[in-house]
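User: Can you recover a sequence for this backbone? Please restate the input before giving your answer.

Assistant: Of course. Working from this structure:
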């Protein structure tokens, strides 16, 4: 996906259940506080599966694309949130765009999936 086609003003929050887990894969870890995300974007959703409960913030920046920030509620294995994205957003450039567009001062990428590295 050409990132120039994405409009930060068009970023919208969507329900977590609208993001099919089969359509996304983890891209980066983001050092960002849940309180800062909630102040800017509203309360986190709680998603549950067989393994854990997770705080979730899901977004759609364009038709057919989505990303989700996830963090385990109890005993998270890493600080911050894991950012998972749809295929068109699977790149380090898209991750940078997403973190910038979230509008959270101090948010930063701490680790990138080796498969997405240039």
């Amino acid at each position: 996906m050409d990132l120039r086609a994405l409009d930060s003003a068009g970023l919208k929050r969507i329900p977590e259940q609208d993001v099919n887990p089969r359509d996304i894969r983890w891209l980066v870890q983001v050092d960002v506080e849940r309180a800062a995300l909630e102040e800017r974007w509203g309360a986190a959703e709680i998603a549950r599966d067989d393994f854990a409960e997770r705080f979730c913030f899901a977004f759609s920046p364009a038709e057919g694309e989505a990303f989700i920030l996830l963090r385990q509620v109890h005993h998270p294995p890493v600080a911050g949130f894991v950012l998972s994205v749809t295929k068109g957003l699977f790149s380090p450039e898209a991750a940078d765009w997403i973190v910038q567009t979230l509008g959270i001062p101090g948010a930063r990428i701490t680790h990138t999936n080796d498969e997405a590295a240039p």
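That completes the design. The chain is about 15% helix and 35% strand.
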